[in-house]
Amino acid sequence: MKIENPTSFSFAMLRCKLFGHYFKVSKDVTDHLHEYKCEHCGLEMTDTANGFWARLTPKFKETNEFIAKIHQRRKRRLLNKVS
Q: Which residues, including other chains, have CB under 8 Å from residue 23's CB and lie 6 or more apart?
């Protein structure tokens, strides 16, 4: 459930403001880098390089996709060497 207009009233947004967000992992980018999404209001967050969370902007999405591609290539290369 993505909120299109941030000024509109929503019980999900009110619930998150009162009790906090309920984040679940929505995508595993690597073994240690994840994207999270709030179950109630749809807010998306990601891990940053310094260990904090930041809002998932288009720039972070692009960066995470690039990191995921590099990670997959390295895993494949490592599996081919072991085999």
A: 36, 37, 38, 39, 45
